[in-house]
Amino acid sequence: MTKAYLLQSWNEKMMSPDQDFRFMALSDLTNEITRDPSVFQGDESAEMKTLDHVMKLVEDTISEVKNQAVLCLGQLTKILRDSQQDFVIEKLIALFNGTDDELRDVAGLALKTVMTNIPDGVVGKACTKVGPRLLKQLQNPSTPPEAILEGLSILAILNTRAPDEITRLDPQPVAVFTQLLKHNRVAVRKRAIVTIAQFIPGSAPNVFNAVLKDYIMPSWGGSVPLDRRVTAVQLVGAIARTAPQKLGPVVGELLPGIFSAISKDDPELKESCLQTLESLVLRCPQEITPCLNQIINAGLEYIKYDPNYAADDEEDEDEEMEDADDDDDDDSGAADEYSDDEDTSYKIRRSSTKVLAAVIGTRPEMLSKIYQTVSPVLISRFGDREESVKVEVWATYIILLNQTGVYGGTTGGRDNDAVAGSKRKRQDENMDVEDSPLDLLRSQVAAMCKVLLKQLHSKSPASSSQAGFQLLIELITVLPGALSQHASNVLGCAKSVLSQSVANTTTTLHTTTLSFLALFFKTHPAGSFNTSVLSITPVLLTEATQKHPRVATEAFKAFSALLQAVSPVTSGDWALQIYKEAVNRLSRNDTDAEVRAAAEEVIGDLWVAATPIVSTQGGAEWEALRRSARPEGAVKVIKKVGGSNVVMDEAWTTQSVEWVLGIVRKSGRGGRAESFECLDVLVSKGTVPAPLVVEITNQLKSYLTIADIAVLAQALSTLSLLLKTYTKITCPIVEDGRSGFLGIIAELASSPLVMGVTLSAVEDFYGTLVAADPQITSHLIPGLMMRAERAGKDGSPSNVSKCIARILRSDPMDIAGTISELNKSIKARSTAKESQIVLSLLTLGEIGRTVDMSLQANVFSDVLQFYTSDSEAVRSAAAFASGNICIGNTHVFLPKIVNMIQTDATRRILALHAVKEVVSNCSHGQLEGVAEVVWTPLFQQSGNTDEGTRNVASASLGKLAAINPERYLGQLCAKLQDPSPAVKATVLSALRYTLIDISAEYDDQLSPLIPEFLSLMNDSNLAVQRLTLSTLNAAARNKPNLIQEHLQKLMPVLYAETALKQHLIKIVDMGPWKHRVDEGLEARKTAYETMYTLLETCLRKLDINEFLSHVLVGIGDEANEIKVLGYMMLFRLSQVAPTAVAQRLDEALPELEKTMKDVTVTKDTVKQDLERAAELQRSCLRAIAGLSKIRTAGASPGFDIFLTRLESGKWGAELKELRAGN
């Protein structure tokens, strides 16, 4: 069908007297344009004719037709010619300015639709055409309120589409809007407030100053009408939300007026003041700091505001906490006597609660004070007679608990300042023990439970009860064991809730309550709830039989936690009942996957905790488990039971091993890890029959390949375990040349791809094999040497040398012979190949680390001759060998190396590498003995002009300083005053190595030196600056307690290093191209890496708002690696400071949008560019997933739109997966 025919057909239908025809014609036209925009494009006269018909239908008498015409215009606007756009806009403006109310409403809707969908290229022109007319209409006193509201909405859309053009209009838009603040209609004033707030961010400073001077400040006067004062307060709050950077400088001038207004006896004014204070706390955190106590006091005063019932006003807060139960009874009685549907005082209490929530969420440094002043008041309001206020109070307390979990201390394992292995001192916590947030919380638990549990016992809506249990979940997460004294009451509340039937409205309540019970059983001693077990288990059993999968899943999880807590269970009908229900679920094919997984976990816990009960039931559960289509769960159960103290018979072990072997064959890479671990547990029992051991051993051979490194390590570990446990059966198979085991593993040992855990597994295999059969040594070592020689340069002689050394440690009898054979390859007249020499040197080094070679002194001399070899690989191997041989006898060999450092410039760098081996691998006792010998020659190299020499020396100096800090740290730091950048760089590198040691043994000596070396962050030399930042990073990661007290001075300097410094950007001519070099990139990158470390280890000492500002700068950096760091920090901040981050989502939006745009491919684009862009987008998407969880409805409209677009686009599935994983 041709375009002309279609247009003609639609035109005829649009002129039809039948409203259905007109409607369908518009609908068809809309759908066709959406599908294929070219259907409308062709002959201009035909287009104009169709457009004219659509415009006439905008004036149709039938509402459905008019609305469809507006929708059609929205699609047409995207493809119209300029002249047609003008026609549409002129027509709609004429209708909008008319006197017909209905047509004006439709025209307003159409204008909003057109302005939203008009192409970017013509939106500016449309703005200059529509804007002045709308502004003129707004100035007309006779304009109806409805038209004013529509006009403001249209201008707000234009402001988002064409902000530059809209601010240049005449008359000035904000000035026009300000006049509307005096309108007699409340709706107009509120819409004007919102529109002014939207325009202020893009307006000139004088525009905001005019609003402030002409309207806001005059509204604080005592004679000003209340409605104007309300409007002014609301305007301040709106501007705070959209343009805090403009409002910030004058906050101090505005707050007195707000505090004065809140004292007026007007509920709406009080509510508006509190809402504005909340916005100021969230959006202007620095500026409101001087008045923060006043804001808190206002929140505390008005959270109790209830003029119609004020029984608590005469009591002080201590009495409220002690008598909370009695007060609550009084509240309940008064509520029965008093009922007033017009009472709006609850809005004031709710707004004041939100003010306190904002303070709590953004001021972690005030936690102790908040617990002392705010927490008691919040607890006293747990029983507020208005349900919405009560839930808001609970939500606020949840925020307080979350903040305590992140910033308050170490209880519950959630201390972000904790570093593995470090010993924290009380004085480093920066708070007295008795005043810590956790201790203050602990002291208030009794009062809290008294009020909260009474509320949960009462007949509250499901949503309220759910909020109460969520609060309890947060409480015991932060303070495990907190409810021990209230266990019977808590379980009684839970029982009461779970006794209700499961319906659509109560499902979430049931799952939350069950989640709470599971956590309660995990975090509280069994003695605190033993007496309540028999009363709570019947309702749990009922929940486990529910059809709703989520409820049943959580019930099974609660039983698992209960079994683990009360183990052992020797009697009790409930254990048998849950066993039967779990078996029933596992036996059915229609069981939900989550329910099945939870039932499997219960079976494992039953066997571990209630063995006497389940062991007599016939074993039906094992059959059901092994038949499951999802074997991972069954593997975990078998592993749990097999690894416990439960004695299982040999038949069970045999069946389980056979079944797990089958799973290993079938599973992909993901499932094999668990299967191998389970197999190890079963094998270690020592009861596997010989034929099955043979089968396992033979099957393992197929996994001895580098195709899957992770599985390779596990297969080798299992093989080593078999050799250790079933030596007589496994050894002959492995050693049999026909089996090929030794050849395969020797090949693996020579592969450079084998490293880390996998290499350790290879070494363990050889050690175990030789321990089982020492005679095999004479076969293994030549075999490994041959494999290494065959591999040549493609092999890894280092790996082979480690394996040979491990063999010899297990069989020391062959050490002398092996050394003799290896020495032949390094003799002066040897004809050995380079690969043989390298392998011999490395092996001698590995052996020499534990063997004294002083009786074979010629070996050391032969090694040293290779310091002058032409081959770099040989020279490196010689340095490695000589250093490690020195460890075997430092008194004989080390002086020769030291003499070489002092006298032989050509071989100095290799001698330094040898010393580094000594320092790195010596035992602590040995190192103390040689420190004096090597310190001076190493220290003398700190000013060496060769950077490589300095780097090697600094690594050794750092380790020695850690061994004897009292003697050496002072000498190091004295060199920081040296004018030479090279010396300072060496000292900084040495200190960085010193800081790698996380033990606290020498913290007292190191602490006074921290300010001195950190002062070099301002050094003029770029390399020194970067090394100082790197040293600070090491200190932040390993010894945060040493730098915490200096962070207040350090952070401004660190933040300064994150800035892009234009004077360090150089343009280098490279023939016809110009290459841009950023010499400050490395220092900037190190600064951001240090910020990331500080976020993990010194969170409580950071100013989150200032930190966040620099993170937002980082995601806009021109270097991708810095952007990635920025997104990583943004994701982390969304977890630890959600309230602060949620307020600034729109600030991050431009960079988020820029990153997530499709990469533009040009002729110069290479594969690496695309890979880097993809990595950056994945990092950005992870940050977006975290941010999407904390956004507040309406607070960041731009981010909401962006997120919706992402969810419906190609990133939707990955974003959903990231949300679920985070």
Automatic annotation (TrEMBL):
Under the heading InterPro entries, the entry gives: ARM-like, ARM-type_fold, CAND1/CAND2, TATA-bd_TIP120
Is Magnesium there in the keyword field? no
Q: Which GO terms describe its biological process?
A: SCF complex assembly
Q: Per the record, where are the segments of Acidic residues compositional bias?
A: 312-343
Transmembrane feature ranges: none
Sequence segments annotated as region (Disordered): 312-346, 412-434
Question: Which parts of the sequence belong to the TATA-binding protein interacting (TIP20) domain?
Answer: 1042-1205
Q: Name one Pfam family in it.
A: TIP120
Q: What keyword terms does UniProt attach to this protein?
A: Repeat, Ubl conjugation pathway
- What family is this? Belongs to the CAND family.
PANTHER family, alphabetized: TIP120
Q: What is this protein called?
A: TATA-binding protein interacting (TIP20) domain-containing protein
Q: Please report the organism this UniProt entry assigns to the protein.
A: Serendipita indica (strain DSM 11827)
Highest classification ranks of the organism? Eukaryota, Fungi, Dikarya, Basidiomycota, Agaricomycotina
